[in-house]
Amino acid sequence: MTTQPAYTSSTLSDVGGERVNRSGFGTKAVWFFRALLLVPFVLMAPEVISALRGSPDGVANISASVADVLGTSTFLIFILMLAVTPVYTMTGWRWHTVLRRDYGIAMFATAATDLTLAAITTGDTFPGTVLTRVGGHTFLAAGTLSTLLLIPLVVTANQPAQQWLGRHWKGVQRLTYVVWGTILVHLFLLFGLSAIFIDAVAVSAPLVFMRLPLVRRWWTAARRRGSRRFVRAVAAVALVGVFSLGFVPLVHELAVKGSAAFVQNPNRD
Amino acid sequence: MIDALTTVCVVVAVAIGTSQLVKEGLQEFLHRPPGVGASPSVAAPGANAAETPPEVAQIVPTQPSPTPQPIQRRVHSGSEVKRDPDRGRPYR
Description:
By secondary structure, chain A is mainly alpha-helical.
């Protein structure tokens, strides 16, 4: 495989300092993936509007839905953002690399909305002050830390910041891996060794594997040479399979809880 | 500048967590309320009663009296016993 296979292109755009060739297909695909970022906000909108209008169940509905819908969405967006680089390593595609920044910013927007709504509405589950609702338990504190750590990442997710910080920019962006860890800790404290945490580990494992310097270098070199096709194909199927084992249940969880939130009939535990 | 911002974010999160730990205590800080995450929801009162294990007195069958007493005979030969043969042997 070459680095720019089927996407030789008509348009050029500058993304994070790299010149990216993008075809008509690439542009449409990028906008499709960008449109997906609206889904969590669309799912929560009816409950938020209902609460703003003073509906008696409005606040309780948000309290019941916010973590399931916005929390799961935040993690899915995070995982898709982390998948950008492994997809490039495996395929050599570049059309999607712009999504890394878009998904990072959208992840912060979703997590911040989640934290804000939780701080306002979850008094029924976490009685006390606002601080109790955002940090009164271990899992809440880990979630809040994850969200706050996104601030320096999102502040520096632009070209002026990249030029200003120079070589230090990459060091700041490595904070992403700290956030990855704190999110997994948050999920472990919430779910223990049950389904959702296991799903989170399953989607994370292939992404970690593809980031190992040895693996990344070997794969990139083999792809550029066009060698070891069978080994790469088998490894790709295995990695995508493990990723799917975790990703599909998480999407299903969002679909079920999100649709219940959209029709303002959340499952109150 | 960015390092300072990162430090502030970490300090704020740690401060919130620590203040809540001191205020509520370790037990409450570690506790996961019912219905949150993997913790089971609080069951409905009816369901709760059904799940409550029977008391020993309910499980152990009453010893048959060596000498039949008029009142007991009347109960066992009554219509209630015919309608529900398991009555008197709950949770078996």
